[in-house]
Amino acid sequence: MSEKFKFPNAGIHIVAHKVGEADYFLEQLKKCHSWDQEFDYNFSAFVSAMRSITFSLQFVMSKYPGFDEWYKIRQEKLRSSKLAKAFVEFRNHAQKTGIIPIAKERSFNEGIFYETTQFYVPKYSETKGVPDGTVKELSERCLIEILTVVAECYKDFDVYIDPRVLFTERALEKLNWTIEDIEEMCGFPRGYTNMNFKDDTFSNEEIRLNLLRNHGGDETLQIYLDKYIK
């Protein structure tokens, strides 16, 4: 890379916010009984937030080199997932009809008795079938599938989007940046940390980067990745 990399205005915190939103409504869903009115509210909000994670990921990452080719592979993987495809259909059906295709625990729905809270195939819908399992279990499984893609992106493009990696010599080399560029990004004058620390263990560059790292912003996405991806 001959020129210094210029970061786009959109940051990974946008994706972290959407992940946090999906996590919030999933937790609310888990607290509700299926007969509670809030159950449908929380599921609808969860599906909407979860589906927007990949949209926001594409929006944020589209300016980074190599992402479009990288994402095509992951996108095809999600499209081939029966679970992910089913949730897209659930959301589309709910948005078009206002009906959330959930059969409540111990209920008759269209002539079928459901022991647990499950999805069903609505009449006059394009849905061919629904995955086996309870709504809560499948919701978390689908979120994990999407977060697996986010985690891979976070790892493969860490130099650009992981604040813990930006303050490393590897990142400086990749971005064609200097420590002075990092200082300026953090709001300090260029050369602000340029001094001889006379340390026998760490180089001046390592010490300077460690000092600046405290001003690089909080890392929030990893909290959700650790929660769902074991």
How would you characterize this protein structure?
- The protein contains 11 helices and 4 strands, in the order ααααββββααααααα.
- A hairpin with a 2-residue loop joins β2 (107-109) and β3 (112-114).
- The relative contact order is 0.14.
- The longest helix is centred in the N-terminal third of the chain and has 25 residues, at 37-61.
- Helix content is 59%, strand content 4%.
- The two termini are 35 Å apart.
- The chain has one domain (13-228).
- α2 runs parallel beside α5 (135-156).
- The chain is mainly α and 230 residues long.
- The strands form 2 sheets. The chain has a two-stranded antiparallel sheet with strand order 1-4. Strands 2-3 form a two-stranded antiparallel ribbon.
Structural class: mainly alpha
How large is the count of helical segments? 11
Overall domain count: 1
Shape: elongated
Largest sheet properties:
2 strands, antiparallel
Separation of the first and last Cα atoms: 35 Å
Topology as a string of helices (H) and strands (E): HHHHEEEEHHHHHHH
What percentage of amino acids are in beta strands? under 5%
Uncertain stretches: none
Mean pLDDT: 91
- Based on CA atoms alone, the radius of gyration comes out at 23 Å
Strand order of the largest sheet: 1-4
Percent of residues in helical segments? 55-70%
Q: How many strand elements? A: 4
Question: How are the secondary structure elements laid out?
Answer:
Layout: H1 13-31, H2 37-61, H3 67-79, H4 82-97, E1 102-103, E2 107-109, E3 112-114, E4 118-119, H5 135-156, H6 158-161, H7 163-166, H8 169-175, H9 179-185, H10 204-213, H11 221-228
Antiparallel strand pairs: 1-4, 2-3
Helix pairs in contact: 1-2, 1-5, 2-4, 2-5
